[in-house]
Amino acid sequence: MDYDQFVDLVAERANVSREQAETLTAATLKTLAERITGGEARDLAAQLPARLASPLMPAEEEAEGFSLDEFIRRTAERAGTDRHTANIGMAAVMTTLREAVDRREFAHVMSQLPLEFRELAPPPRIGRLDGN
After folding, report:
1. To bridge 53 with a disulfide, which of 5, 34, 45, 130 should be the other Cys (CB 3.0-4.6 Å)?
2. Is the pLDDT of residue 125 over 70?
3. How many whole angstroms separate alpha carbon 62 and alpha carbon 50?
C-alpha cells in the first residue's frame, strides 16, 4: 500500500478531509512510536512507505508506558484536534496499518500495547458468510 492509498483510506474511515487524515496519521504514528520499543517501531517502519515510516522513527529505545487515554490526548494535541476526532482518526489509522503491513508485524506491535488498545483496531471478524 502506498502513502496516498493509506491516507485516502484513513480519510474515508474517519470521515475527515485528506489533509486532516494526513495530520491524524502522522500524529498517531508518532505517538505509537513512543508507546512501543524502538526496535519494534523500526520493524514496523520498514514495511511502510517513507512518508509513513518517518513519524515512527523513535527518539528512545524504551517504550513509554501510558494508557489509551494518554495516547488519545497526545494524538489530539499533535493533530491540533479534539479528543473525539483524534480517537476516530486513531482507529482509522490503526485499522489501515493492520491492512498495510504483514499480519505478524502488526501482531508484534499490538502485543506491546495493553489490551485496551485492541478497541482501536479490533481483529477482523472471521466466520462464514451465511452467519453460521
Report:
1. 45
2. no
3. 23
